[in-house]
Amino acid sequence: MILPIRAFGDPVLRKKGKDISQDYPGLKDLVSNMFETMDEANGIGLAAPQVGLDLRLFVVDLSPLAEDEDYADIATELKNFKKVFINATILEETGEVWKFNEGCLSIPEVREDVARHETITIEYYDENFNKHTDTFSDMRARVIQHEYDHIEGILFTDHLSSLKKKMVKGKLTKISHGEVNVNYKMRFPK
């Protein structure tokens, strides 16, 4: 089922997510719906707050990037990178800090360079509640950091300089008022 994606300005996007128990009602359906919603919106990551739930849950599917020639050197890793992250905690961020132009399904039509660490180590549970501690680099680390921010109540625009924040303020206001054209289902703040 396609869920509406919450737009910038919705208070749930600023809430720190709550941990999920293994017996969370409808967890399998929620994960499936989140992947379906993300795919419908042509996204590569989606966090529970973006569908209105203040939970520590996000999904990532980087297979669309495997076809992009910019990622030819890691295409194999990206092609099979479809993961569920439950109750995640980033344990360490290391390596070079690099900027990359990011966007967000909750903040359509806004893209800006964000500086993030090259490598992360993260502890999380998968959809079957198996615990993992993994280290990821490159685009995998970047997308995970972006989605992880969502479960911490942080948006990519929070990482921008004061000047950049002023420059996008008008666009953010328009998004919060529903003045944006998207080809996916969105819910705007009241």
Annotation keywords:
single chain, 190 residues, alpha+beta, 5-stranded antiparallel beta sheet, metal ion binding, Peptide deformylase, iron, EC 3.5.1.88
Q: What series of H and E elements makes up the topology?
A: EHEEHEEEHHE
Helix content: 25-40%
Shape: globular
Provide the CATH superfamily: Peptide deformylase
Tell me the number of helical segments per DSSP (H or I, 4 or more residues long).
4
Roughly what fraction of the amino acids lie in strands? 25-35%
Instruction: Give the strand line-up of the largest sheet.
Output: 2-3-4-5-6
N- to C-terminal distance: 23 Å
Largest sheet: 5 strands, antiparallel
Radius of gyration over all CA atoms, rounded: 16 Å
What name is given to the CATH topology? Peptide Deformylase
Uncertain spans: none
Number of domains: 1
Task: Please give the CATH architecture.
Answer: Alpha-Beta Complex
Q: What is the C-level CATH assignment?
A: Alpha Beta
Structure description:
- This protein has 190 residues and is of the alpha+beta class.
- It has one domain: Peptide deformylase (Peptide Deformylase).
- 25% of the residues lie in helices and 32% in strands.
- It has helices at 27-40, 75-79, 138-151, 162-176, and strands at residues 5-6, 45-47, 57-61, 82-104, 107-125, 131-137, 186-187.
- A five-stranded antiparallel β-sheet has the order 2-3-4-5-6, sandwiched between helices. The protein has a two-stranded parallel ribbon with strand order 1-7.
- Strand 4 (82-104) and strand 5 form a beta hairpin.
- It is globular, with a radius of gyration of 16 Å.
- The two termini are 23 Å apart.
- The relative contact order is 0.22.
- The mean pLDDT is 95.
- This is Peptide deformylase.
- Its cofactor is Fe(2+).
